[in-house]
TrEMBL record:
Name the UniProt record assigns to this protein: Multiple sugar transport system substrate-binding protein
Source domain of life: Bacteria
Any single Pfam family the record assigns to this protein: SBP_bac_1
Record carries keyword DNA damage: no
Alphabetized UniProt keyword annotations: Signal, Sugar transport, Transport
Amino acid sequence: MKKHNLRGAVVAGAAAAALLLTSCGFGGGSTTGSAASGSSGAAAGAVTTLDMMVPSYGDNTKALWEKVIKDFEAANQDVKVNLEMQSWENIEGVLKTKIQGNKAPDIYNGGAFAEFAAEGLLAPATDIASEATIADFHPSFAENEKVDGTQYGLPLIASARALFYNKALMKEAGVADVPKTWDELYNAAKAVGEKTKSAGYGMPLGNEEAQGESMIWFAGNGGNFGNATAIEVNTPVNLEATDFMQKMIKDGVTQKDPGATQRTPMLNTFIQGKIGFAYGLPQTIGQIKKENPSLEYGIAPVATKTGAPATLGVADRLMSFKNDGSKAAAVKKFMDYFFSADVYSNWVSTEGFLPTTTSGSEKMAGDETLKPFLAMLPDAVFYPTTNPAWNATDGAFKSLMGQIATGKSAADVLKEIQAKADAAK
């Protein structure tokens, strides 16, 4: 029987239904000023400074946030926002260092959050967003932001992964059909690698997103990383998937050195027409239009062991480290501004993600690029971000999973990752 993370499956199904219906009719910051700060950190004449740390989703991310901040500050002259950009490879390490130095960002865009909530570091959503803003989130996404019944995260984006394939390379290699199963993907990628000058399959197991690539394969065999109460990495179905990944590597079906390959440059290589198959995101479509519009490519569901539908679903969020609690009102001003329909829909559509709000969905109802990914959401498996041990598990995947490319047995790698997760309980 196909096994999914129950919460992820419920979130995906309900969110996809809501979006489809919409589309069919469908502490670290400082407070400056002459007066002492009040509950908002901004008494009369004072300016509250918010430190905001976010990752880069693509080439547009920095400019998009800078515009949001510029427009927000123009409308709220008592609040200043300092933006700090970090790569996905570095952001979690930088965050840990800031927390240890009592300089946690007032606003943070990330994935895992349960550990921070359990330690009492995060402000509840009701402290950092108005009732109207919170009510606008699709209930299924909002539910996935809760720990012990309290919502901490504000759902920022939703996404799913799909198989991108190079039509020209398939034709050159004599591959007629888009692969639906692992064996078909293996054979097709092998043919591309042998008969063209390009890599057959792009497998990024570097520390940018080894956990994402792994989850795609695990889900393709009915596996996952566990749930809110138990991290389950070292399981028979996950081991079978990891063994197959390692077979792809050993047989030369992937690009060179997958253990050190990051997702972003790997997808850039696909966009330049030099990889036959790779798992991409909604915004990959926009990157192709911008960087190589002549690329002959297609999008298909994830290849799984049996061909049954499954994919990785991702939901990132904005959260606020409460620090001394003095900046909640300023944070609330920013969150309410950002999640307003016009501002948010422009940001999320330009980034190429699926919206998490009802008003955003209405604004983006005509976006055709979202539809293939939206169709995959009901079969998506999500990370167990509400498990306090997820941060450690995520880090273990990023640092250890690449070892399957250096000869270490799949069984030993999963045991090592599981041990890291168990130690974090």
